[in-house]
Amino acid sequence: MNSAQATPRVSDTSSMAHLGQIIAVASGKGGVGKSTLSTNLALALAAQGAAVGLVDADLYGPSVPGMLGIKTGQSPSMSPSGKVMPAQAHGIKVISMGMLTDDDKPAILRGPMVSKYLRMFILEVDWGTLDYLILDLPPGTGDTQLTLAQSFPLTGAVIVSTPQDVSLKIARRGIRMMEQVKVPILGIVENMSGFTCPTCGDVTHIFHQGGGAKIAASLGVPFLGAVPLDPAIVDCGDDGRPLVIAYPGTPAAAAYRDIAATLSGRAQTAPGMPTPFDWHWADDASKPKPSPVAGKSGGAAEVPVAMDRSGGRTLVVHWQDGHIQPIDVRDLRLACRCAACVDEMSGRAVLDPATVPLNIVPTRIWSLGNYAIGVSFSDGHSSGIYTFGHLRRMVAAEVEDV
Q1: Are strands 185-196 and 223-229 parallel, antiparallel or unpaired?
Q2: Are 275 and 72 contacting, i.e. CB atoms less than 8 angstroms apart?
Q3: Is 174 annotated as belonging to a binding site?
Q4: Is the pLDDT of residue 107 over 80?
Q5: What is the pLDDT of residue 28?
Q6: Domains 17-266 and 278-392 share a fold
Q7: pTM for this one?
Q8: What distances in angstroms separate CA 316 from CA 275, 305, 308, 332, 368, one per listed residue?
Q9: DSSP string covering 285-353, please?
Q10: What's the chain's average pLDDT?
Q11: Gyration radius (Cα) of the chain, Å
């Protein structure tokens, strides 16, 4: 995560409050029912009276339109403001690559185009005012997950697994990835938990039992619940009428509603500074607003609650545990860990300090999700990602007089 990163446009993420809680539904591997959970979870939240949007972020294998009965291959209409109008199905708003292409036409996209489409699906869609925006992620821990974590202030992630040991082990990797980029884990869902015989009512645990709860306990994250196998889930997905709509009285539909109820009480705004922000150093334009909760003893060591500057050469970071840390801006440039400044294989610094001007200053500082900042400097360098942990470990500078 220390490779070169394109500098975001200033206007892209200037105001995202209308999107409400942004919740990613993720899995370490495919085939665990993540899209089915995302769809039914969105509908269950809407049934509670919430305004919900659903982004099918699996650009290569979009399945949400089919599950909701949305026609594919038709160009979406545009709003008067020039934004894409989302489809509406069963009371929720939806956007997906599957709506833009025919069923048998593959999405052949390189990494930069994936990032472009993801940002468009979130920022250039006329969502209106939402309470929740659910992101149905592709499986794994690749470009899509990192792009979303860096570009948007995710409220948290729901991790989906099956009770199989191999699925649980891979789910653990997904959790660790989200933790690394400071995306709160809202909980684990164990899907395909057991099959209830429609004739005799006996439950057969085809993929073992209780693995989701055990891994949640071992990692110290919440367990949101287990969803049993139900043949009707497949039929409903094929028919475009999800289970919570078509068969609300089934145990699986009840499990989706219980997960939604638990999740709606658990999702909260991150405790640090409000994001996103894009701070112009020279004139303090768009300076990040401080957290409404000031730092104090006992708070988190790597969660910033405010950023300020002293004079023109010192960045001052206020941390949630009450620590105030001044950082000289040239030291900040010298501490860059991007691929142009540090050898990625050995970790050895390749940046020659003699090439960094003594009078260098930042030009912009912007947020990268909940875990880092990007900085553009007056020497033209802008590819560094400074995680909050990296900033906290830097040596404090002498504060200049304002």
Answers
A1: parallel
A2: no
A3: no
A4: no
A5: 76
A6: no
A7: 0.78
A8: 17, 11, 5, 12, 18
A9: BTPPPPPSS---TTS-TT-EEEEEEETTTEEEEEETTS-EEEEEHHHHHHT--STTTB-TTT--B---G
A10: 85
A11: 23
Q: Tokens standing for 370?
A: 């909940």
Whether residue 292 contacts residue 272, with contact meaning beta carbons closer than 8 Å, is answered with no
Region for residue 289 given its phi and psi (left: phi exceeds 0; alpha: psi -120 to 50; beta: otherwise) = beta
Q: Residue 28, annotated ligand binder? A: yes
* Each residue's pLDDT tens digit, 282-330: 999 999 999 888 888 888 899 999 999 998 899 999 999 999 999 999 9
**What are phi and psi for residue 327, nearest 5 degrees?**
-130, 120
Written in H, E and C, the secondary structure of 251-273 is HHHHHHHHHHHHHHHHCCCCCCC
What does 199-232 look like in DSSP terms, one character per residue? Answer: TT--EE-TT-SSHHHHHHHHHT--EEEEEEE-HH
- How far is residue 108's CA from residue 212's CA, in Å, rounded to a whole number? 35
Tokens found for residue 373: 């900042």
In sequence order, the 6+-apart residues with CB closer than 8 A to the CB of 116 are none
**The residue type at 148:** L
Residues 6+ apart with CB under 8 A from 67: 35, 36, 39, 236, 237, 240, 242
Angle of helix 211-219 relative to helix 165-180, nearest 10 degrees? 30
Is 167 flagged in the annotation as binding? Answer: no
17-266, what's its fold? Rossmann fold (3.40.50)
Query: How confident is the model at residue 221, as a pLDDT?
Result: 87
Q: Is 32 annotated as a binding-site member?
A: yes
Architecture category of domain 278-392 in CATH: 2-Layer Sandwich (3.30)
Q: φ and ψ at 202, to 5 degrees?
A: -70, 145
What's the angle, vertex CA 87, arms to CA 85 and CA 90, rounded to 5?
Answer: 140
53 belongs to an annotated ligand binding site: no
| Distance between CA atoms of residues 97 and 72, nearest Å | 9
Domain extent listing, the chain: 17-266, 278-392
Is 389 flagged in the annotation as binding? Answer: no
Residue 102 CA from chain centroid, whole number = 28
